[in-house]
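Protein Record: Sequence and Backbone Structure Tokens
======================================================
Tokens: labelled as protein backbone structure tokens, with as many entries as the chain has residues.
Question of interest: how does this chain fold, as expressed in backbone structure tokens?

___
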Amino acid sequence: MKLHRHTLLLPFALGLFACSEEKAPSPEVLRPIRFETVHSASSAVERTYSGLAVASDAVDLSFRNSGVVSVINISVGSEVKLGQVLAELDNVKAKLSLEQSLSALKAAESSKDTAFNNLERIKSLYENNGVSLSEYQASKNSYQGALSQYESAQKTHRLQQEIVADGLITAPRDGVIAAKKVEQGETVNAGTVVAVLNAGEGVNVEVGAPESVINSLKVGMAASLHFTSLGEDIQQGTISEVSPVIDPNSSTSTVTVSPARVDRRVRPGMAADVSFLLSRDGDGTEQLMAPIKAVGEDANGNFVYVIESSDGKTGKAVKRSIVIGDMLSGGFVVRQGLSEGERVATAGLQTLMNGQRVRLK
């Protein structure tokens, strides 16, 4: 009988053990989620345009008269000094007229001096009653006539000097010839550029900025310069001039950028990429940015999943509507709905559910 009682108790014990196994809770499986933190960033965007290096103090040299170039004493790269004669027109007639005016001036000066000496003599005689008043007055008139002729001869001579000078090009300052545009024997008009003188050591960069951004570029604004022939070196500079005129052919305005330091490797004519930071949204100040991958869109507008977590390991994904602005390189500008430092999911937005428990990874 004892054996039979134990046999009946065995199935009962096994049943109790099976029930205890079925009631044991299974561990919660949390979905791993990628996230990024909402941060502030500048709304400015970088714009790059092609430019060309130019001498910081370039002077176009030209004649003020037209004629045939008889002398040109320059070559590209030659150094010149202030006042040095660089080129000359074949102005034989002007030189001849200058010589004639000089002769006339000397003759008028001699007549003036003779008339003055005669006036002084007659004046002395008149004061001693040696001559009449009419004779004294005649000598005065003679001197005034000689003086007028002398002054007229002076003006004519100065005019002829200017005409001859207009047929000369002299260096307005020390410098280096950067370009030579005519040769001896060529006929040029007044104002035709004969050569270009680089009178300064520095080099600026000129760039054509489109009219869509020209109002955003101001004197003193920072810029970066990359001369393609100098490798990866990036130089800093500032805008020194902004042309107020738009070129109707290219719809651009010339902006001049001055490098922060003189680099003797940079020569006029070198190509450069010029970059500016321009405001694209608002005034270019710091604004809240949301990662592009974190922003979704449904029938109600744009949204993100904000990860609420107290321990930084697990949390809850909460769907939240937001208002966005422009899309920049760093993400969307957030106008409403988020705060700096909040975590937002950046993957699987289509399959996430509002309030779903997640594991941060």
